[in-house]
Write a structure and sequence with these properties.
alpha/beta; six-stranded mixed sheet; four-stranded antiparallel sheet; binds adenosine-5'-diphosphate; binds magnesium ion
């Protein structure tokens, strides 16, 4: 639904060059919720602004719904038309304070040339859709943050978009309001078949509603994929962030293994089987169960006696049971986790 190919963006200001995007290949499937995470300055906003051509990329192409936007002329009506099929939601809502809620939602319809009565009917429908039917005559200043964002979402839906872009839409909201806005985005995604590309620095957002995710750093996508696949990818930074398990080895000659359970594998008594089969004592250093993208997932960090070479067979046994076993993360898992946590915290500033 959204594809960017070798996208680059170089900003030039006061003789200085900043490469905000450095060869980004993004692929968002139709009907999915796709999250892009990364620290502040990673290029997330630039990427999303390029997707609807608010920002012209320096090179590379962007296609949305089978149409190559980068091939359309700058001020042409074809581009305007294509853009109206891409809704955008902003962190600070960007509502006009002198207009009522209804008028704010009517504005894009006005620009699209929809006539008076029809415009009002459509805007009221959209307000109903986002749960704000009772606030049509209110002014933005009279609304809570969550309500303002609902207006922002209603306005973004005015052109019946197939794609909704969201740049930190919940960053200015408290946790409870964040949850209700995420739920709304999920509902719209399901009800309208809307493809959602969102940017966030909060892993909780990815965990709650994203089907797929990408991690950006220095203008590049360093990791991407379906969340369930990422969780099953050895050494995945996103997986470790989404689902951190703590725990340090009790002694040097130990092998620490992160085991991820998804679906059917989660119900098997594998750890006791492992212990019995190989007659080894296993310590659990950390464990957690959670729901990620609507799937029940478990993660456990266990410790086996002896070095890795001595545990090749038991580790093979775990893999045969259909479990994701991440041995590579032993040496640098905690370090990677700590640095990414740091990055995302910095992104929050
Ligand atoms: P993020 O949204 O991940 O924080 P941005 O896309 O906003 O990152 O910024 C990426 C880089 O591009 C940063 O180094 C930022 O300073 C720079 N940048 C963004 N917008 C502009 C601009 N209009 N002019 C010059 N540099 C910019
Ligand atoms: Mg940004």
């Amino acid at each position: 639904m959204i594809t960017t190919t070798d996208l680059t963006k170089v900003y030039r200001s006061r003789g200085r060059e900043v490469t905000a995007l450095d060869g980004v290949d993004l692929h968002v499937r139709e009907g999915e919720v796709y999250g892009v995470v990364g620290q502040s300055g990673a290029g997330k906003s630039t990427l999303i602004r390029c997707v609807n051509l608010l920002e012209r990329p320096t090179s590379g192409t962007i296609s949305v719904d089978g149409q190559e936007l980068t091939a359309l002329a700058g001020r042409g009506s074809a581009l305007r038309q294509a853009r109206s099929r891409i809704g955008m939601v902003f962190q600070h809502f960007n509502l006009l304070s002198s207009r009522t809620v209804l008028d704010n939602v009517e504005l894009p319809l006005e620009i699209l040339g929809v006539s008076g009565k029809q415009r009002t009917r459509k805007a009221l429908e959209l307000l109903e859709l986002v749960g704000l039917a009772g606030k049509a005559k209110a002014y933005p200043a009279q609304l809570s943050g969550g309500q303002k964002q609902r207006v922002g979402i209603a306005r973004a839906l005015a052109g019946d978009p197939k794609v909704l872009l969201s740049d930190e839409a919940t960053s200015a909201l408290d946790p409870e309001t964040t949850r209700s806005i995420l739920q709304l985005l999920r509902d719209l995604n399901r009800q309208l078949g809307l493809t959602v590309l969102l940017i966030t620095h909060e892993m909780e957002v990815v965990k709650t509603i994203c089907d797929s995710a990408a991690l950006m750093r220095d203008g590049r996508i360093v990791e991407s994929g379906r969340v369930t696949d990422l969780l099953a990818t050895p050494g995945s930074e996103l997986a470790q962030e989404l689902f951190p398990v703590g725990g340090v080895p009790s002694a040097e000659d130990r092998t620490v293994v992160d085991v991820t359970f998804q679906g059917e594998a989660a119900t098997k008594p594998v750890i006791s089987q492992l212990s019995r089969t190989y007659n080894i004592d296993i310590s659990i250093l950390g464990a957690a169960m959670d729901t990620v993208g609507g799937n029940q997932v478990g993660r456990m960090r266990i410790e086996l006696p002896g070095r890795f070479e001595e545990n090749v067979v038991p580790i093979g046994f775990l893999r045969e049971q259909g479990l994701q076993v991440d041995v590579a993360a032993i040496a640098d898992g905690p370090r990677v986790a700590a640095s990414t946590t740091q990055l995302l915290k910095e992104g929050a500033k």
